[in-house]
């Protein structure tokens, strides 16, 4: 055994391991409350019942999604409260490993907000789901105030506001008062 290998820290060795194809267990923490678990379970049961005759989707909750471009379990992972992936095999999994699922990411993600998760769900997770996963439909639900946020809708509204502002500026530049058009 070489001296450098014997003195390498366990973290260094673990960090360099690339996991082979196969099942990787989810690494999600326990849910915050019974209500949280019940809401996730309800969503899973509803979608599975609604699409009971379909075999081309995967729906689950509180399961880790591994998405490291280096195909390492120790890098780049998140665990949405609920997600659905379309055009995939309907089967049980221990986790969702993007590089083992033909590069597929969730089509729908729903996060259940709580006091301890709201800022991450609305901030970091939103950015990852939007920019890396490119998930078309990301929602969050706050069971305390019943806020259901349609993120895609908000993004579309903001884009329309920006387009309207640009159009108004162009009209003004052409000598037309946009307020007088209607």
Beta fraction: 15-25%
Please give the radius of gyration in angstroms. 22 Å
What structural class do you assign from the helix and strand content?
alpha/beta
- Biggest sheet layout: 5 strands, mixed
Give the termini distance in whole angstroms. 82 Å
Low-confidence stretches: 1-8
Lateral strand order in the biggest sheet: 1-4-6-7-8
Give the overall shape: elongated
Helix content: 25-40%
Mean pLDDT across the residues is: 81
Count of individual beta strands: 8
One letter per element, helices H and strands E, the order comes to HHHEEEEEEHHEEH
Number of helical segments? Answer: 6
Summarize the structure.
The chain has helices at 3-7, 10-15, 34-50, 118-122, 124-132, 151-173, and strands spanning 57-60, 65-66, 77-78, 82-86, 96-97, 108-112, 137-142, 147-150.
Tell me the layout of helices and strands:
Layout: H1 3-7, H2 10-15, H3 34-50, E1 57-60, E2 65-66, E3 77-78, E4 82-86, E5 96-97, E6 108-112, H4 118-122, H5 124-132, E7 137-142, E8 147-150, H6 151-173
Parallel strand pairs: 2-5, 6-7
Antiparallel strand pairs: 1-4, 2-3, 4-6, 7-8
Keywords, separated by commas or semicolons:
single chain, 182 residues, alpha/beta, 5-stranded mixed beta sheet, 3-stranded mixed beta sheet, 6 helices, 8 strands, elongated
Could you explain the architecture of this structure?
The chain is α/β, with parallel strands linked by helices and 182 residues long. It contains six helices and eight strands, in the order αααββββββααββα. The strands form two sheets. The chain has a five-stranded mixed beta sheet with strand order 1-4-6-7-8, with helices on both faces. A three-stranded mixed beta sheet has the order 3-2-5, with no helix packed on it. Strand 7 and strand 8 (147-150) form a beta hairpin. The protein starts with a helix and ends in a 9-residue tail after the last helix. Mean pLDDT is 81; it is low at 1-8.
């Amino acid at each position: 055994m070489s001296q450098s290998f014997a003195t390498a820290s366990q973290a260094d060795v673990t960090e360099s391991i690339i996991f082979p194809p196969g099942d990787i267990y989810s690494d999600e923490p326990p849910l915050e409350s019974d209500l949280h678990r019940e809401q996730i379970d309800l969503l899973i049961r509803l979608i599975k019942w609604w699409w009971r005759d379909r075999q081309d989707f995967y729906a689950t909750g509180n399961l880790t999604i591994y998405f490291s471009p280096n195909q390492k379990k120790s890098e780049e992972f998140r665990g949405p409260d609920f997600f659905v992936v379309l055009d995939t095999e309907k089967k049980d999994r221990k986790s969702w490993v993007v590089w083992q699922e033909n590069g597929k990411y969730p089509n729908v993600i729903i996060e259940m907000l709580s006091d301890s998760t709201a800022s991450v769900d609305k901030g970091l997770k939103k950015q990852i789901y939007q920019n890396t996963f490119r998930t078309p439909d990301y929602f969050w639900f706050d069971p305390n105030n019943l806020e259901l946020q349609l993120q895609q809708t908000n993004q579309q509204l903001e884009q329309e506001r920006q387009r309207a502002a640009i159009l108004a500026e162009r009209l003004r530049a052409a000598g037309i008062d946009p307020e007088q058009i209607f």
